[in-house]
Design a protein that fits this description.
By secondary structure, the chain is α+β, with helices and mostly antiparallel strands. The protein has 11 helices and 11 strands. Strands 2-1-4-5 form a 4-stranded mixed beta sheet, with no helix packed on it. Strands 6-7-3-8 form a 4-stranded antiparallel beta sheet, with helices on both faces.
Length: 315
């Protein structure tokens, strides 16, 4: 094992290391009939990518904005959800823009990405190895395909590169250019390629929807129109819904949860409610039901222990 590591380090120093193409497989999407493409690198490539990730993380952690939460040390989905809830409840949010980038990992412009990296990374060897990984290609059903765009999901370094790409294309643009031009409060909360924007004024939300699409288009990205919308969501949303003849305010999905308008237990204060997205919960229940059917002969105590573990994970 140590001999292999020494040989790997020797090739890296000599710039003789060439990454292998990633093997593409497809995994089911939770609560959907669609499948998610996943790239599986070989072990050596995982090790080298992990080393490069550590280098880039040390450089960019001080650059990334506060409201970026995906795949960063000391941050989690729950942090993003807590900040989103507080922003809507306490900072005057009345409108939310729910956005989705179409096939983000497949459409990252590699040349733009390398240009972004060159802003902060001076070591040409690091840049060359990252480009080699981007250009390594894909093996699917035994057929090799060149990779001129994108960064494969599943690669160790891919989440950090995704964060970096959206840091320049979206986060800095929103923080430095769009947010100062808003007439009311505005905040964008992002976890990897999932994000929502909160606004006090409807005009700001509508303008963001238009200008965001133009901004992403400059970098080879486009939004999914069927998954991108503006909705009234905040302390006044329920009242506005009733005035329009609707029983409830609209809801939106973010990081596995459906967010809805509700009140505190005494009914005096507005609160953001969260529940698991129904189609995902149904999919999990279906899988658990199949597990019970296949393992119904196990001792009752073992079935209950497994059930308790699954429930604990859900909660």
């Amino acid at each position: 094992m140590m001999e292999n590591l020494d040989a790997l380090i020797w090739r890296l120093h000599r710039m003789a290391y060439v990454p292998q193409s990633v093997r593409r497989v497809y995994i089911p999407k939770q609560g959907s009939d669609k499948q998610r493409p996943l790239g599986i690198p070989v072990l050596e490539d995982k090790l080298v990518q992990a080393g490069l990730s550590k280098i880039l993380e040390a450089i960019y952690e001080e650059d990334f904005v506060e409201d970026s939460y995906g795949f960063r040390p000391g941050r989690s989905c729950h942090d993003a959800l807590c900040v989103l809830g507080r922003t809507i409840e306490r900072q005057g949010t009345q409108y939310v823009v729910e956005a989705d980038i179409k096939a983000f990992f497949d459409n990252v412009d590699q040349n733009q990405l390398m240009a972004f990296l060159a802003h902060r990374v001076a070591d040409k060897r690091v840049l060359r190895y990252i480009r080699r990984f981007l250009k390594a290609g894909i093996q699917e059903d035994g057929v090799y395909r060149a990779s001129d765009r994108g960064t494969p999901q599943g690669g160790v370094i891919s989440p950090l590169l995704a964060n970096l790409y959206l840091h320049y294309t979206l986060d800095l643009w929103f923080q430095r250019r769009f947010q100062p031009s808003c007439t009311g409060s505005a905040r964008l909360i992002r976890y990897a390629d999932d994000y929502v924007a909160c606004f006090k004024r409807e005009a700001d939300a509508k303008r963001f929807r238009i200008e965001m699409e133009k901004r992403l288009g400059l970098f080879g990205l486009e939004i999914a129109p069927e998954k991108t919308r503006i909705l009234a969501f905040g302390p006044m949303a329920q009242q506005w819904a009733k005035e329009q003849g609707r029983r409830k305010a609209e809801t939106f999905d973010f990081l596995g949860f459906t967010h809805y308008c509700t009140t505190s237990r005494n009914g005096k204060w507005f609160r953001v409610g969260r529940k698991t997205i129904s189609r995902r919960l149904s999919a999990k229940l279906k899988v658990f039901k199949e597990w019970l059917r296949a393992n119904r002969t196990l001792p009752t105590a073992e079935i209950m222990r497994t059930t308790a573990n699954k429930l604990r994970g859900h909660y």
